[in-house]
Amino acid sequence: MVSMYPYSISKIANQLIEICKLKDLKIATAESCTGGLIAGSLTAISGSSAVFERGFNTYSNQSKCELLNVSFDDIVTFGAVSEQVAGKMAEGALNNSPVHLTAAVTGIAGPDGGSPDKPV
């Protein structure tokens, strides 16, 4: 099978870990639909404990509000699957962790559940 991506997740994760080690940066993740896949990809790398601090698995709207301080009004206004909420998730991870970098992801888990406005 040929990947549609030029790099594998593990290769990108490896590169991120190495760059963070060189620059002495710490990382946290905030994930929704991926359920920890990004954190798992990072922590699968030997030596990642030097830079990976924590991951927030916030699948429900309530957990986004409670753990990452995402405003419920933002979820209602923009939707849980929106650039605005993803940004608030990243900001919440940064504010709740002793880190320099955060990555956040939200989306619609397939194969069902999408809509014409937000397809899977």
From TrEMBL:
InterPro entries, per the entry: CinA-like_C (IPR036653), CinA_C (IPR008136)
Residue stretches making up the CinA C-terminal domain: 11-120
Listed NCBIfam families: PncC_domain
Name of the molecule in the record: CinA C-terminal domain-containing protein
